[in-house]
Amino acid sequence: MTTTNKAEQLANGAWEQYTLDIDQADSHVIISPQGTTTVIDADEEQVAERLDQVFAGRVADDGTEPQTIDHFVVTHIHGDHVDGVRVLKDAGYTIDQAYQPNATQYDVGKNG
Asked: What share of the chain is helix, strand, coil (3-state, %, to 5)?
């Protein structure tokens, strides 16, 4: 297992994107120019540690390191994409809004 974070500034130079290589499924972190944080998927134990690395050195309005995830997006409901939510909570992170796909809206793989 690799434990790298890849920081990639997007074309406008203001957005940040990080890929957190965590166990079976990667997590992705997108930080807007305004500091809004979006996390896509979170796999198990290492997610909080890797997110701490992304936030290291950043300062929130109250002078502390940020501990808020504004948007958490689950691509699908498998353990390797959602089990890290509990780990994030236990590590002191707050998730303001969470999103998951609505499987009932799609008939994937079914013939009409």
From this structure: 20, 30, 50
Write the CB contacts of 35 (distance below 8 Å, at least 6 apart in sequence): 66
- In order of 15, 20, 54, 99, 108, the CA distances from 30 in angstroms are 7, 11, 10, 15, 28
**Are the C-beta atoms of 59 and 96 separated by less than 8 Å?**
no
pLDDT tens-digit series, residues 6-37: 444 455 567 888 888 876 778 889 998 888 89
Residue 63 structure tokens: 């002078």
* The residue type at 65: E
